[in-house]
Every structure is written in C-alpha cells, then in structure tokens.
C-alpha cells in the first residue's frame, strides 16, 4: 500500500476545499487551484481532513494514489504560502535585468535572451544575478525555473551559466599539457 497516499491532508482555516465529480478545487487567500482527479482515485473531505483512496489494487491505481495525494497537498500549501525557486546567474559579465514584465539575460551569447511573463508566476530580481520564481502552483513554478535554467545551463568546465541556488556544479578537469 502507498505510504504517501495513506497520509491524511489537514486543511487549515483560511483554505477551503470543494470536491465535485473528479475535480478538486482548493481556494485560499492567494488564489484558487483546480486539480483533476483520475477516475481510479477518490478524495473525501471530512471536517477539514482530506483522505485520498484508490478503488482497486491495479498497478496504475497504486501509482496514481500517492501522486494525487501529493498534488492535492501541494495545492493546499500553495494557496497559503507561495512556492518559490531561486536561481543564480554565474559568470563574468553574465547578468539579468527586468524590462517591464520580461527578464533580459546577458549570458555570453551575441544577443540578449528575453524571458516573457508567465501567467500565475511572479518573477523577481535581486541584484543583477539572482532570480526568484514564485507562485501558488508548485508544478508551474518548477517548470518556469527549469525553462530559465535552460537558457544557459552551467558549463561543466568553468561553471558559468544559470543554476539553482545552492546547486553544486562539479567541474571537469581541462586538457593537461604533455610533459617531456
């Protein structure tokens, strides 16, 4: 049995959860999220405690059990306190700046790279080399952070590029000169 799926989800006071058919709507002070529930899974709300259960013991049902519980838990937490990911731009001359609602990256290309605003996600800049991605939907925040990182992945030889805060890039050794 899924250990993750068995755990109940406690819903705090400012959050309300409504379950209709196979959709779960979570509303809180920061907004509202809708989660589609697979037909193999049932979600019940009893006095502020959500229980996620599966209808049978098929492999697909077991896989979706813990996933659905985690998605609902992330929604319940996200509408109270936004999820955030922090990124750093490393490299000499590498920087990021905000122009209107877009971010403009200078990361060693012959041109600047513009990253547009994404609905439901807030992009903030600290200094000229730190970006904070935040929002109520954990999946969307992670996806936007991954897209920003993909603009210039960290170089394995010098470590230049965009990386998550605290990420360790293991540098490869360069070519060694032959000795006579």
UniProtKB/TrEMBL annotation:
SUPFAM superfamilies: Ribosomal protein L6
Signal peptide start and end residues: none
Large ribosomal subunit protein uL6 alpha-beta domain: residues covered: 15-79, 91-164
Any one annotated GO CC term: cytosolic large ribosomal subunit
GO molecular function, one term: rRNA binding
Keywords: Ribonucleoprotein, Ribosomal protein, RNA-binding, rRNA-binding
GO biological process annotation, one example: cytoplasmic translation
Family: Belongs to the universal ribosomal protein uL6 family.
PANTHER family: 60S/50S RIBOSOMAL PROTEIN L6/L9, LARGE RIBOSOMAL SUBUNIT PROTEIN UL6M
Function of the molecule: This protein binds to the 23S rRNA, and is important in its secondary structure. It is located near the subunit interface in the base of the L7/L12 stalk, and near the tRNA binding site of the peptidyltransferase center.
Protein name: 50S ribosomal protein L6
